[in-house]
Write a structure and sequence with these properties.
The chain has 133 residues and is α+β, with helices and mostly antiparallel strands. The protein has four helices and five strands, in the order αββαβββαα. Strands 2-1-5-4-3 form a five-stranded antiparallel beta sheet, with helices on both faces. It is globular, with a radius of gyration of 14 Å.
């Protein structure tokens, strides 16, 4: 688990109105970071969900010749689950409130992806994060 990535993720959640929780997940489903409002067990389960969802959506897009998937927004009773692609196949699963400005939130998630870059999301980083558990 990266302290730097967790710091960036928590900071992003604090400054983007309407965002309440988030997990960052490596391409192979490993939990890279999670926000303070989640406990480790919940974050691990959400990482598995995010990885599976990312795989299913990408599989459907491939079957439909739709090109690469940049993200997905799922409407829930209490808000929105936003799955967005980061670099190197990593992803970010975010929960927002119903009153969140989705255009602003998704723009900030794109900015977060650029800020994080490949350094903290490459396979060797994911392996190191897994070893730190």
């Amino acid at each position: 688990m990266s302290t730097d990535l967790s710091f960036l993720l928590n900071n992003n959640v604090r400054v983007v109105p309407g965002v309440s929780q988030a997990v960052a997940v490596s391409v192979d489903g490993l939990l890279l970071a999670f926000t303070d409002g989640l406990n480790r067990d919940a974050a691990e389960r959400l990482a598995a969900v995010a990885s599976g969802l990312n795989s299913l959506i990408n599989g459907a897009a491939q079957e439909l010749n739709a090109g690469g998937v940049r993200g997905n927004i799922t409407d829930t009773d209490r808000g929105y689950l936003i799955l967005t692609s980061l670099n190197r196949g990593a992803s970010l699963l975010v929960l927002t409130r119903r009153d969140a400005d989705l255009a602003y939130v998704t723009a900030e998630l794109d900015r977060f992806a650029e800020q994080v870059g490949d350094t903290q999301l490459n396979p060797s980083f994911a392996a190191a994060a897994a070893g730190a558990r």
